[in-house]
Amino acid sequence: MKTKETVIEVNNLVKKFGHFVANDNLTFHVNRGEILGFLGANGAGKTTAIRILTGLSKPTSGKVIVAGIDVNKNPEKVKRRIGYMSQRFSLYDDMTVRENFRFYGGVYGLTRKQIRERMRFYLKKLAMESYENMLLQNIPLGWKQKLAFSVANVHNPDIIFLDEPTGGVDPITRRQFWEMIYEVSDAGTTVFVTTHYMDEAEYCERVCIMSEGKIEAMDTPKALKEKYGAKNMNEVFIKIARNVE
Amino acid sequence: MRTVLYILQKEFIQIFRDKSILPIIFLIPFIQLVVLSYTATFEIKNVRFILVDHDHSSESRKLADKFSGSAFFTEVGKTDSYRQAIQAIQKDKADQIIIIEPDFEKNLVNEKRAKIQVVTNAINGSAASLMNAYALSLISDFNKEIMVKQFPMHFKEMPIKLNSSFWYNPELNYVTYMVPGILVLLVTIIGMFLSSMNIVKEKEKGTNEQLNVTPIRKLEFIAGKLIPFWIIAMIDLLIGLLLARFWFGIMIIGNPFLLLFVAGIYLVLVLGLGLFISTLTNTMQQAMFISWFFLVIFILMSGLFTPIESMPMWAQKLDAINPLAYFIKINRMIMLKGSGFVDIQKDFLILTAYAVGMIIFSTMRYRKTT
């Protein structure tokens, strides 16, 4: 399912908050089914970019096309085609797993039968069938993150945006999380993921390293390592960060 | 439309799962209704008076009996010393002193005139004028009896006979007057607080981000947030009306369905206002303070505790934007006076336009994109 078809196209994207430039002239594209890692220190502008791509925030200037639709002109139309999982855990803690699935499935216009099937599918995959009627507040964080990912996928979006999905999650759960990312990517969903963890950067097909609102480098992990003569992505990241300083 | 149903389902699940909000919705209003309705009264029932009788005659005793025989007066002491009586007022043991001059009876018979002095504690001005009025009416009663006795020819029949009757609330019963107003007040407080806290709660928890990336339409969202609280507030109102009927014995003279219909429109307005506040604020604390600010002003200017007619002109004009003032007025008209739609038409139309405006406002203010 991976093709050269472009599903995200960003041209000269600029976002300013007053005098502060959060995104400084970003231009890049992402192909269907690709896993793109967005890397950068805190405050590099990753979350700002992801919020603009999902239509949560308006760019100051520039053009953003997601799933063939201009986000700035038609944000609501884009929303049917994308999934989003934010930094903060954002399912409803006071509702059960099933109620969360039902609400989001319903909002995306799925039938009751579809919602049930999608939920069963994910719970089975996560081996969490017995948690169906448990309140989310009683479920450990790492598991909740996997559920949040599943809910963000409930409507089979073309593109899924993950904003630091594995923050505060243990290594084993992180590993499982990435298996889920590979699965949806294999099925043709484009994955746009931001992270702090450099080992995770190795899992991405392409990475984009941001610093102070600008894209410093964008290529496959292998090419980046060769270019900077580094053993791993961690070294690449540190070298780029030094150059900037 | 289906989306709205899913939002409703979610909201109801969350409301009924919250163990602290349920008593707020279904218990506290009725405790308040019962307590407030008995305590928020301007009636003065027990005027404690001291009699300073310098005359000790049969006429002065007759006058004293008139006071102690009245349901509004309680005699708390008799003394010959004015100073002692004043001290009793100082110590808040008495509210009023009735002083009868020496030779009261003699002067009545010989001079055809005699003097009585009434001293009233006026720390609470409106209470004092009421006490004064009570005392004067007893004294003028007494006066009339004497005149009839002394000049039987002239006063067989009084030239003008005064017959007063009080309409819509014949017994001048404060509970009857207060209950409909307090009922409106409580439903307003519940509705405004619940709705103003709601959207901002999602903002605080971060769940609104997830909602904003879904294709929910703004109007669907506002409707989904408004309808649950509307239903709850209507149920509260219904229970309150039943309490008014069976606990306080207040009959709804007008059409109860008209009342519920107007209440339904009014609640859309109140909840719309709450949601509007919720879209403006970022924390529940801000939302709480802003709604409290508006509620206090709305309540104090609503005409519930003080008549709107005695407010200064600018305040009366300001009440044109006070939803509570409209509904308390309409509510009393329907419940106590039996007014029909034609009577409340103008206020009703204003309320409706106001409600529609508020919904448009909060829908526009709700931003999915920042």
Q: Can you walk through the features of this model?
A:
The complex is a heterodimer of chains A (245) and B (370). Chain A has 245 residues and is α/β, with parallel strands linked by helices. Chain A is 38% helix and 27% strand. Chain A is built from nine helices and ten strands. In chain A, the strands form two sheets. Chain A has a six-stranded mixed sheet, with helices on both faces. Chain A is globular. The model of chain A has no long low-confidence stretch (mean pLDDT 90). Chain B has 370 residues and is of the alpha/beta class. Chain B has two domains: 2-40 and 171-365, no CATH class; 47-150, abc type-2 transporter like domain (abc type-2 transporter like fold, 3-Layer(aba) Sandwich). Helices cover 66% and strands 6% of the residues of chain B. Chain B has 15 helices and four strands. Chain B has helices spanning 2-17, 21-26, 28-39, 58-69, 82-90, 104-110, 125-150, 174-205, 207-212, 218-246, 256-280, 284-300, 313-318, 323-337, 341-365; strands spanning 47-53, 73-79, 96-100, 116-120. In chain B, strand 1 (47-53), helix 4 and strand 2 form a beta-alpha-beta unit. The A-B interface holds A 54-58, 75-77, 79-80, 82-84, 86, 88-95, 99, 102-104, 106-109 and B 2-3, 5-7, 9-10, 13-14, 17-18, 205-207, 209-217, 368-370.
Name some characteristics of this structure.
heterodimer; A: 245 residues; alpha/beta; Rossmann fold; 4-stranded antiparallel beta sheet; 10 strands; 27% strand; B: 370 residues; abc type-2 transporter like fold; 2 domains; 4-stranded mixed beta sheet; 15 helices; 4 strands; 6% strand
Secondary-structure element pattern of chain A, one letter each: EEEHEEHEHHHEHEHEEHH
Shape of chain A: globular
What is the CATH architecture term of chain A?
Answer: 3-Layer(aba) Sandwich
Number of strands of chain A: 10
- CATH homologous superfamily title of chain A: P-loop containing nucleotide triphosphate hydrolases
Task: Give the helix level of chain A as a range of percent.
Answer: 25-40%
> Order of helices and strands of chain B, N to C?
HHHEHEHEHEHHHHHHHHH
- Strand-residue proportion of chain B: 5-15%
Spans of at least 5 consecutive residues with low confidence of chain A: none
Give the rounded overall mean pLDDT of chain A. 90
By helix and strand content of chain A, what is the structural category? Answer: alpha/beta
Give me the oligomer status.
heterodimer
- The neighbouring-strand order within the major sheet of chain B is 2-1-3-4
Q: What class do helices, strands and sheet pairing of chain B give?
A: alpha/beta
So how many helices of chain B? 15
Largest sheet of chain A: 6 strands, mixed
